[in-house]
Amino acid sequence: MKKLFLFCLILHVGMFTSFAADPVKMWGQLQVKGNQLCSEQGAPVVLRGVSYGWHNLWPRFYNKNTVKWLKNDWKCTVLRAAMGTVIEDNYIENPDFALQCINTVVKAAIKNNVYVIIDWHTYYPQKEEAKAFFSMMAQKYGKYPHVIYEIYNEPMEDTWESVKEYATEIITEIRKYDPDNIILVGSPHWDQDLHLVAADPLQGFDNIMYTFHFYAATHGQELRDRVEAAWNAGIPIFVSECAGMEASGDGPLNVPEWQKWIDLMERLQISWVNWSISDKNETCSMILPRADKNGGWDESLIKPYGRLVREYVRKYNAYVYPDKK
Ligand code: MG
């Protein structure tokens, strides 16, 4: 009898933890309702996690072990694979290596049941290349609820009209193969011009969200007001990249301003992804160069900003990943 009780207890705990620790099992096929990201069942969802750095600058972290580590130790519910399509050795120049990096992370995310953003990481329009790439990704991964497409990281010099035209073509291509996964669309000036989006959003597509990026030591209340105004106007917003220092990715952290951004995103239930898992000598690179490429990082191997991100992501995602004690 004792043995039976123990068996039932183990079975129960095992079922509970495996369900509770798997975001994609909890929330399934994501959807957008009004301005809110929602689960398959229609309940609001806030994803929180980290972005890998450019694949062509920090390829060493693009492996299945970091995916597992960032889920289990950092408690991320979403990861972002930032596929560089500019800067040396980018996807356009060296597609085989880029695809190897991206596919490794995406496949590991699917295996570990975390959401993953496939990010076309650029500042300039490269429409034909992007169209062919997302066509391939949608055919390969469209059936997996884990995958989110980010079709243009940060338009820099484009007008909203040209981003809209670009987005329409890429979304149309993705939707030929994948009718439902979330697609993230950028806006001019490094994803800041949400007021232009709010005045003239895309029409005729489902499950579209608009990205907003901030660096807390540079971007303050004026932009928080802009985010809230766009949200109030019904625009679904996803913060696919953010950080606590200056927009260069370097300089001192501004923790009070960062806290204000976190408070705003949590109040509006906007998902947020932190930049980045990389090891350059700059504030935004979260990991030290001597840290192992496979994760397993104790606090001494994580830089101050990384420790802050890990603490916050763990705190806000604690309900998804309850202690197994
Ligand atoms: Mg799909």
Summary of the model, kept short:
The chain is an alpha/beta fold and 325 residues long. It has helices spanning 2-20, 23-27, 64-72, 95-112, 127-141, 160-177, 188-191, 194-199, 221-232, 255-268, 304-316, and strands spanning 31-33, 36-38, 48-52, 78-84, 115-121, 147-150, 183-185, 208-215, 237-243, 272-277. The chain has one domain (33-316): Glycosidases (TIM Barrel).
Give the count of structural domains.
1
Mean pLDDT: 94
Q: Which H/E pattern describes the elements? A: HHEEEHEHEHEHEHHEHEHEH
Shape: globular
Strand order of the biggest β-sheet: 3-4-5-6-7-8-9-10
CATH topology: TIM Barrel
In helices, the fraction of residues equals: 40-55%
Characterize the main sheet. Answer: 8 strands, parallel, barrel
Bound compounds, each kind once, are:
magnesium ion
What does this structure look like?
Helices cover 41% and strands 16% of the residues. By secondary structure, it is an alpha/beta fold. The chain has one domain: Glycosidases (TIM Barrel, Alpha-Beta Barrel). The chain has an eight-stranded parallel barrel with strand order 3-4-5-6-7-8-9-10, surrounded by seven helices. The protein is globular and about 50 Å long. The protein binds magnesium ion. The site of magnesium ion has 5 residues, from loops.
Structural features:
11 helices, alpha/beta, globular, TIM Barrel, 325 residues, two-stranded antiparallel ribbon
Topology readout:
Layout: H1 2-20, H2 23-27, E1 31-33, E2 36-38, E3 48-52, H3 64-72, E4 78-84, H4 95-112, E5 115-121, H5 127-141, E6 147-150, H6 160-177, E7 183-185, H7 188-191, H8 194-199, E8 208-215, H9 221-232, E9 237-243, H10 255-268, E10 272-277, H11 304-316
Parallel strand pairs: 3-4, 3-10, 4-5, 5-6, 6-7, 7-8, 8-9, 9-10
Antiparallel strand pairs: 1-2
The structure holds magnesium ion (MG).
Magnesium ion binds at residues 142-143, 178, 180-181.
